[in-house]
Write a structure and sequence with these properties.
Elements lengths: L5 E5 L17 H6 L5 E4 L1 H4 L9 E5 L5 E5 L7 H13 L5 E6 L12 E4 L7 E5 L2 H9 L5 E3 H4 L2 H10 L6 H8 L2
Parallel strand pairs: 1-2, 1-5, 3-6, 5-8
Antiparallel strand pairs: 3-4, 6-7
Protein backbone atom coordinates (compact mmCIF):
# COMPACT_ATOMS: atom_id res chain seq x y z
CA UNK A 1 0.00 0.00 0.00
CA UNK A 2 1.34 3.41 -0.89
CA UNK A 3 2.31 6.02 1.68
CA UNK A 4 -0.60 8.31 2.47
CA UNK A 5 -3.25 5.79 1.46
CA UNK A 6 -5.86 5.36 4.18
CA UNK A 7 -8.53 2.83 4.96
CA UNK A 8 -11.30 4.56 6.91
CA UNK A 9 -12.88 2.15 9.40
CA UNK A 10 -15.77 2.51 11.82
CA UNK A 11 -14.09 2.78 15.21
CA UNK A 12 -16.38 0.16 16.79
CA UNK A 13 -15.13 -2.44 14.27
CA UNK A 14 -11.62 -1.84 15.60
CA UNK A 15 -12.84 -2.60 19.12
CA UNK A 16 -12.89 1.02 20.27
CA UNK A 17 -15.36 1.77 23.10
CA UNK A 18 -17.66 4.05 21.09
CA UNK A 19 -20.92 2.11 20.74
CA UNK A 20 -24.19 3.41 22.16
CA UNK A 21 -24.49 0.34 24.41
CA UNK A 22 -20.83 0.28 25.41
CA UNK A 23 -20.45 -3.24 23.99
CA UNK A 24 -17.37 -4.56 22.22
CA UNK A 25 -17.98 -5.06 18.49
CA UNK A 26 -14.43 -5.47 17.26
CA UNK A 27 -14.25 -7.53 14.08
CA UNK A 28 -11.26 -9.94 14.04
CA UNK A 29 -10.60 -9.55 10.30
CA UNK A 30 -10.69 -5.76 10.48
CA UNK A 31 -8.51 -5.70 13.59
CA UNK A 32 -6.01 -7.90 11.74
CA UNK A 33 -6.18 -5.69 8.63
CA UNK A 34 -5.27 -2.69 10.82
CA UNK A 35 -1.91 -4.32 11.49
CA UNK A 36 -0.99 -4.01 7.81
CA UNK A 37 -2.54 -0.77 6.55
CA UNK A 38 -2.88 2.80 7.72
CA UNK A 39 -6.32 2.94 9.32
CA UNK A 40 -8.28 6.04 10.22
CA UNK A 41 -10.98 5.19 12.79
CA UNK A 42 -14.20 7.20 12.79
CA UNK A 43 -17.36 7.32 14.85
CA UNK A 44 -19.66 10.18 13.86
CA UNK A 45 -21.72 9.85 17.03
CA UNK A 46 -18.77 10.30 19.39
CA UNK A 47 -17.38 12.79 16.86
CA UNK A 48 -20.26 15.13 17.69
CA UNK A 49 -19.67 14.66 21.40
CA UNK A 50 -22.03 11.84 22.35
CA UNK A 51 -20.70 9.63 25.16
CA UNK A 52 -20.52 5.84 25.30
CA UNK A 53 -22.77 4.38 26.52
CA UNK A 54 -25.64 6.66 25.48
CA UNK A 55 -29.26 6.43 24.36
CA UNK A 56 -29.40 4.83 20.92
CA UNK A 57 -30.00 6.85 17.80
CA UNK A 58 -32.25 5.68 14.98
CA UNK A 59 -33.37 6.74 11.53
CA UNK A 60 -36.77 8.38 11.24
CA UNK A 61 -38.55 9.20 8.00
CA UNK A 62 -40.18 12.56 8.65
CA UNK A 63 -43.52 13.67 7.11
CA UNK A 64 -41.64 15.33 4.19
CA UNK A 65 -39.97 11.99 3.40
CA UNK A 66 -36.53 13.05 4.65
CA UNK A 67 -34.41 10.65 6.68
CA UNK A 68 -33.41 12.09 10.06
CA UNK A 69 -31.26 10.77 12.91
CA UNK A 70 -33.15 10.92 16.21
CA UNK A 71 -31.86 10.20 19.71
CA UNK A 72 -34.07 7.84 21.66
CA UNK A 73 -35.77 9.33 24.69
CA UNK A 74 -34.87 12.96 24.03
CA UNK A 75 -36.22 12.78 20.44
CA UNK A 76 -33.49 15.26 19.55
CA UNK A 77 -32.75 15.53 15.83
CA UNK A 78 -28.99 15.00 15.51
CA UNK A 79 -29.01 15.12 11.70
CA UNK A 80 -27.49 18.61 11.28
CA UNK A 81 -24.56 17.88 13.62
CA UNK A 82 -23.89 14.47 12.11
CA UNK A 83 -24.07 15.79 8.54
CA UNK A 84 -21.65 18.61 9.37
CA UNK A 85 -19.22 16.24 11.10
CA UNK A 86 -19.34 13.73 8.23
CA UNK A 87 -18.96 16.38 5.53
CA UNK A 88 -15.90 17.92 7.21
CA UNK A 89 -14.38 14.51 7.92
CA UNK A 90 -14.82 13.32 4.33
CA UNK A 91 -13.54 16.54 2.77
CA UNK A 92 -10.24 16.17 4.68
CA UNK A 93 -9.66 12.81 3.00
CA UNK A 94 -9.58 14.03 -0.62
CA UNK A 95 -6.91 12.14 -2.56
CA UNK A 96 -5.79 10.07 0.43
CA UNK A 97 -8.46 7.44 1.03
CA UNK A 98 -8.05 4.01 -0.52
CA UNK A 99 -11.16 2.35 0.95
CA UNK A 100 -13.86 2.52 3.61
CA UNK A 101 -15.05 -0.31 5.87
CA UNK A 102 -18.07 0.92 7.81
CA UNK A 103 -20.46 -0.64 10.33
CA UNK A 104 -23.60 -2.16 8.86
CA UNK A 105 -26.92 -1.30 10.48
CA UNK A 106 -25.45 1.89 11.95
CA UNK A 107 -27.57 5.06 11.60
CA UNK A 108 -24.40 7.11 11.45
CA UNK A 109 -22.11 4.84 9.38
CA UNK A 110 -23.74 2.12 7.28
CA UNK A 111 -22.95 2.34 3.54
CA UNK A 112 -25.59 -0.27 2.77
CA UNK A 113 -29.36 -0.03 3.28
CA UNK A 114 -29.30 -2.17 6.43
CA UNK A 115 -30.23 0.45 9.03
CA UNK A 116 -33.73 0.12 10.43
CA UNK A 117 -35.84 3.18 9.73
CA UNK A 118 -39.01 4.11 11.57
CA UNK A 119 -42.12 6.17 10.85
CA UNK A 120 -42.56 7.29 14.46
CA UNK A 121 -40.38 9.27 16.87
CA UNK A 122 -40.44 6.43 19.38
CA UNK A 123 -38.50 4.18 17.01
CA UNK A 124 -41.11 1.42 17.13
CA UNK A 125 -42.91 1.33 13.74
CA UNK A 126 -40.39 -0.07 11.27
CA UNK A 127 -40.94 1.08 7.66
CA UNK A 128 -37.75 0.03 5.91
CA UNK A 129 -33.98 0.16 5.87
CA UNK A 130 -31.68 2.90 4.68
CA UNK A 131 -28.02 3.87 4.69
CA UNK A 132 -26.34 5.72 7.53
CA UNK A 133 -25.19 9.31 7.08
CA UNK A 134 -21.43 8.74 6.70
CA UNK A 135 -21.88 5.77 4.36
CA UNK A 136 -24.31 7.66 2.13
CA UNK A 137 -22.07 10.73 1.94
CA UNK A 138 -18.95 8.64 1.30
CA UNK A 139 -20.66 6.90 -1.62
CA UNK A 140 -21.62 10.27 -3.09
CA UNK A 141 -18.21 11.93 -2.61
CA UNK A 142 -16.02 8.90 -3.43
CA UNK A 143 -17.81 6.96 -6.20
CA UNK A 144 -14.57 5.30 -7.36
CA UNK A 145 -13.39 4.18 -3.92
CA UNK A 146 -14.41 0.77 -2.46
CA UNK A 147 -16.92 1.36 0.35
CA UNK A 148 -18.02 -1.77 2.18
CA UNK A 149 -19.60 -2.79 5.42
CA UNK A 150 -18.02 -5.51 7.57
CA UNK A 151 -20.32 -8.18 6.12
CA UNK A 152 -19.39 -7.44 2.49
CA UNK A 153 -15.73 -7.44 3.51
CA UNK A 154 -16.07 -11.15 4.19
CA UNK A 155 -17.20 -11.97 0.65
CA UNK A 156 -16.00 -11.45 -2.90
CA UNK A 157 -15.90 -7.67 -2.51
CA UNK A 158 -13.59 -8.08 0.47
CA UNK A 159 -11.22 -10.30 -1.47
CA UNK A 160 -11.15 -7.69 -4.25
CA UNK A 161 -10.38 -5.00 -1.69
CA UNK A 162 -7.50 -7.01 -0.26
CA UNK A 163 -6.10 -7.47 -3.76
CA UNK A 164 -6.28 -3.70 -4.24
CA UNK A 165 -4.55 -3.05 -0.91
CA UNK A 166 -1.95 -5.80 -1.37
CA UNK A 167 -1.22 -6.12 -5.12
CA UNK A 168 1.89 -8.28 -4.55
CA UNK A 169 0.59 -10.74 -1.99
CA UNK A 170 -2.18 -10.73 0.59
CA UNK A 171 -0.77 -11.57 4.04
CA UNK A 172 -1.56 -15.14 5.12
CA UNK A 173 -3.02 -13.91 8.41
CA UNK A 174 -5.71 -12.10 6.41
CA UNK A 175 -6.31 -14.93 3.96
CA UNK A 176 -7.06 -17.31 6.82
CA UNK A 177 -10.28 -15.40 7.48
CA UNK A 178 -11.47 -16.11 3.96
CA UNK A 179 -10.56 -19.77 4.14
CA UNK A 180 -12.73 -20.10 7.25
CA UNK A 181 -15.83 -18.90 5.35
Amino acid sequence: MGRGDLVVVSACLLGRPVRYDGEFKGDPLIMELAKYVEVLPVCPETGIGLPSPRPRVFLWKDPRGEIRVIQEGTKKDLTPQLEEFCRKFLEKLKGRVKAFVLKSKSPSCSPTPTTKTYEDLEGEKLIGRYQGILGKMALELYPDVPILDENKLKGGEGRALLQLLFPSAIPDTLLQYFEAW
